[in-house]
Amino acid sequence: MNFEDFEEKTVTREDIFKGQVIDVKYDTVTLPGKTETAKRELVFHNGGVAVLAITDEQKLILVRQFRKALEKVIYEIPAGKLEQGENSDPQAAMVRELEEETGMAAATIVKISEFYTAPGFCNEVLHLYKAQNLTKVDNPRPQDADETIELHEVTLVEAKAMIKSGEIADAKTLIAIQYWELETHA
């Protein structure tokens, strides 16, 4: 089957919301090979970066923070959205986020993957990196004014236990830890 056999063509698009982080649209689409139409609620996001930051002691740096959409505090790897103009250089955005959230810089950076966070309704692409050979930055960039985070360092065994207990349930963090485990046991 070709792309055209799956493509839903947009008939109309209505702007529902334009925000600082997301835009929401409401599309009417024609279904492939059919005369019927369907409705699609879509979220457009500029994308983001995340970092599997591993210390020299082979510990993963996690941030613990409150997430309003969940109404709870969760553990995640350092991450953030791509600011305007950063789409062409997500690695630079990752370097910025690592410094802002952990006060660290990395001598070794490797891109692991990029993936869609929720392709059923959102176009967000997350760029995932691994950072090692970390050093403290003397005068790090400040955290975002609207963030309150706490840093934690855990071993791979501890991270896996946190997944099992449900303390880590964030998709980007699960993917990063899975990569770390696969790489460690390869």
Which keywords apply here?
elongated, alpha+beta, 20% helix, hydrolase activity, NUDIX_hydrolase-like_dom_sf, 186 residues, hydrolase, NUDIX_hydrolase_dom, Nucleoside Triphosphate Pyrophosphohydrolase, single chain, 3 helices
Please provide a written account of the structure.
This protein is of the alpha+beta class and 186 residues long. The chain has 2 domains: 3-45, no CATH class; 48-184, Nucleoside Triphosphate Pyrophosphohydrolase (Alpha-Beta Complex). 20% of the residues lie in helices and 44% in strands. The chain is built from 3 helices and 10 strands, in the order E-E-E-E-E-E-E-H-E-E-E-H-H. It has helices at 90-102, 156-165, 171-184, and strands at residues 9-18, 22-30, 37-45, 48-53, 60-67, 72-76, 79-81, 104-116, 125-136, 149-154. Strands 7-4-9-8 form a 4-stranded mixed β-sheet, with helices on both faces. It has a 3-stranded antiparallel β-sheet with strand order 1-2-3, with no helix packed on it. A hairpin with a 6-residue loop joins strand 2 and strand 3. Helix 2 packs across helix 3. The longest helix is centred in the C-terminal third of the chain and has 14 residues, at 171-184. The chain starts with 8 loop residues before the first strand and ends with a helix. The mean pLDDT is 94.
